[in-house]
User: Fold ATP-dependent protease subunit HslV from Leishmania enriettii.
Amino acid sequence: MLRRLVNRSTSFVTEAAVQARHTTILSVRKGNKVILIGDRQVTLGERIVAKSSACKLRKLNDNVVIGFAGSTADAFALMEKLENKLNDFPDQLSRAAVELAKDWRTDRALRRLEASLIVCNKEETLEIDGQGNVITPEEDGIIAIGSGGTYAKAAARALIDVEGYDAEHIARKAMKIATDIDVFSNSNWDVEMLTREEEAVQKEEAEKAEKAEKAEKAEKAEKAKE
Assistant:
């Protein structure tokens, strides 16, 4: 419910009451970069643009960034809870996210909160949705939420293998496509970037190559049986 404060003859909606139900938040991982990008538009209901410069990204520390879609107040309450969980489980993002999801499902007050989060560190990207689920992205490392999330995710997937495009380039191009389509998102964006260690990147690429090789061998073996 929106509260209106009246100052003489002028009424206005308080920023705390604004709900960012429509938005586009996208995370892309490629090479040594992890990008989280989000638009700044806040829409009330289906028509009223309440604000075009609201930041929906937050950096918890040097290694964790969060983007949100849904109620602004609810999202900040959840981010505070997640920060507390990370204090309980330092450097264990998955564990902290799962513990938050458990509380979200079982706590009566938390169950009323309407928001979705994308949480990134240098090693992982997770979505924590309004049902208290913790979702990991596909192998391409792309995840998106909000009304424009489907468009942004599809565009990023189409661009992820383009040679010469790094994570930030892909994220910006995908956001441009999504925000051109989605009327509830705008082209005023915030971007957060985490840089991964080269050794970790090389290890991940080696694991992917090994997995692809095993899948190819299994496919050939299956065809040979036929």
